[in-house]
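Backbone-to-sequence.
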């Protein structure tokens, strides 16, 4: 195999460090699969990016996370350069990253999501809680649980103008009790369901990227009808948003009032993490797909949309 693959990593988002780890791991796996690999630490400078992609690679593996990397921005640049790239295209990336818009698309596809609303930061600060407690505060367009806070009964939100660097809008959603569920989708195939059990608190940025902070159970110990429904929701969400390549759907399963409980879709990640602790490689391995085979499949299915 003689394809030259450029791995884009780093970037300028709040998830830069995670992206660097993802990029290095994917680069090593692609080399093990027989590709020639060039690692590119992406800066906010298109001229430097174009220079780094000269001579032209055969494909681009997009290991960027967060703003700029998975919101349609870098995808638009690669479309202009006519360089085939992994993961979703411009529209699907932008839709999935914009949580309020994604919720509209998912609801139209018949996939239940937590009730919520978008409020202005100034209104939140002036008027206080916009929903009855417990609720969740989220940035409208960040990943990896960056900025997510759970406000439970008897607590007050740690929210001020100084500690909210995520823009003027805030997504506030009803807190869904129960269990954390995730499903990997590869092409048009949902692979498996994993349950995530954080050792304390909720599955926040620290729990995602610190070894030993969460237990992953794959396959998830769910009733078969709920397991199958989670697989169905993940595939339908992938298709409704127009995703391609690999995605990961995050859900909550509320079984606090007994079985059967209720599944709620939280979001779809079009650029799921590829670190040693990441869920998609773990789920793929459970299905008999080793990491080099997974990233090679992604490269062989890389393309432009336009």
């Amino acid at each position: 195999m003689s394809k030259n693959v450029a791995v884009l990593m780093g970037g300028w988002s709040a998830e830069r460090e995670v992206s660097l780890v993802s990029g290095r791991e994917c680069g090593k796996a692609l080399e093990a699969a027989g590709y020639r690999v060039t690692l590119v630490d992406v800066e906010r400078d298109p001229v430097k990016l174009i220079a780094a992609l000269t001579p032209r690679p055969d494909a681009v593996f997009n290991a960027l996370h967060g703003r700029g990397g998975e919101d349609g921005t870098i995808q638009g640049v690669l479309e202009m350069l006519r360089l085939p790239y992994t993961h979703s295209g411009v529209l699907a990336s932008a839709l999935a990253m914009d949580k309020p818009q994604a919720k509209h698309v998912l609801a139209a596809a018949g996939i239940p999501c937590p009730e919520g609303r978008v409020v202005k930061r100034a209104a939140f600060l002036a008027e206080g809680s916009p929903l009855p407690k417990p609720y969740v505060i989220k940035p409208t367009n960040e990943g990896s649980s960056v900025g997510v806070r759970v406000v439970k009964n008897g607590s007050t939100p740690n929210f001020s103008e100084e500690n909210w660097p995520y823009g003027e809008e805030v997504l506030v959603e009803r807190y869904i009790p129960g269990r954390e569920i995730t499903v990997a989708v590869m092409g048009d195939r949902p692979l498996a369901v994993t349950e995530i059990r954080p050792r304390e608190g909720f599955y926040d940025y620290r729990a995602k990227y610190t070894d030993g902070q969460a237990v992953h159970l794959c396959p998830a110990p769910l009733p078969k009808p709920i397991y199958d429904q989670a697989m169905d929701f993940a595939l339908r969400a992938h298709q409704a948003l127009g995703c391609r390549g690999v995605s990961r759907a995050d859900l909550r399963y509320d079984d606090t009032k007994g079985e059967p409980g209720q599944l709620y879709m939280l979001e779809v990640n079009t650029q799921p993490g590829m670190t040693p602790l990441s869920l998609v490689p773990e789920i793929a391995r459970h299905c008999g797909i080793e990491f080099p085979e997974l990233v090679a499949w992604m490269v062989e299915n890389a393309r432009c949309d336009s």
